[in-house]
Amino acid sequence: MICPDTAVQEGVSTMTSNTAKSAVAKSATTPQPIKALHSGSGYPVLLLHGFMLSPHCWEQVAVRLSSHCEVFAPALAGHWGGEAIDGWSVDVHALADRIEDQLDELGWRTCHIAGNSLGGWVGFELARRGRARTLTAIAPAGGWNSPSLTEFRIGMKFLSLVPIVEIGKRLGGFAVNNPLAQRFALLLLSKNAAAVARRDAAAMVAAALHCDVMLPMILGSGRAPALEDLSTLTTPVRLLMAEYDRIMPNRVYARRFLEELPDSADRILVNGVGHVPMLEAPDRIATLIAEHIYASRTRLRAV
């Protein structure tokens, strides 16, 4: 026979145990911020994520490259996991300054760079500064004149997401792990949502909700000068365009890259993927980056 006090104690113990298990399970499924991914040895490779994302989107590619390369994938300043950045207006040049500081800390005078979206734009700026041995630009941003209607349209597209992000912030962890929120993010950033792991989808939502630089970046990008003439770029460039890019469709946003990049630059359409192809096709993206790196080492062009 169990006395009432003992029953209460056992009940409390059981509840505590269940709560602890629930907390562990929640922490296992809820993504945590990453300041930087850094692994492997060999050729120095810098991986730069897109606007409102985080190093999480590079995890699968980083694993594949790290067998032959030293991979460094930092969180951009003002983004989830990244250092804080002050000011009501932030542009690509400020982000590139912070990345240069990190390269100096690593002792990397130059490195191979792969950047997606905003990361590709930062990659072009770093290449212009002489920091890139090669550049793989994956659905890069910045392919517009300033000011222009194209620039205005992309700014308004991201500005329209502000109310959605604010609602998500109020919902907190519920939004991060909510299948509908994840589905919405995947609809924008991928072609085959089923190919993206639930954990990666949750990280995308969390990164968007923790992007402190969202408004300053939208304002700053509209005021910043456009990319300089791409035809004068001496860095070996490989342009990867996503076939189903819903954020920056190729017919509009890739036009300048296609027209201005030197003839020596690779121009490749990656079939069956969305704006952030590393999530749904990490094998292909890692291979395309590695090919470009190795081709530059042997002075041969990958085809």
The named CATH superfamily: Alpha/Beta hydrolase fold, catalytic domain
Major beta-sheet overview: 7 strands, mixed
**CATH class type:** Alpha Beta
Structural class: alpha/beta
Measured between the Cα atoms of the first and last residue, the distance is 79 Å
**What is the overall shape?**
globular
- The gyration radius over C-alpha positions equals 21 Å
CATH architecture field: 3-Layer(aba) Sandwich
Write structural notes for this entry.
The structure is a single chain. Helix content is 48%, strand content 13%. The chain has 303 residues and is an alpha/beta fold. The chain has a single domain (36-298), classed as Alpha/Beta hydrolase fold, catalytic domain (Rossmann fold, 3-Layer(aba) Sandwich). A seven-stranded mixed sheet has the order 1-3-2-4-5-6-7, sandwiched between helices. Strand 4 (111-116), helix 4 and strand 5 (132-138) form a beta-alpha-beta unit. The protein is globular. The protein starts with a helix and ends in a 5-residue tail after the last helix.
From the structure above, extract its key features.
7-stranded mixed sheet; about 300 residues; alpha/beta; Rossmann fold; disordered N terminus; globular
Question: What can be said about this structure in brief?
Answer:
The protein has 303 residues and is an alpha/beta fold. The protein has helices spanning 4-29, 59-65, 92-106, 118-128, 149-159, 162-171, 173-176, 179-189, 198-209, 214-223, 250-253, 255-260, 282-298; strands at 36-39, 43-48, 69-74, 111-116, 132-138, 237-242, 266-270.
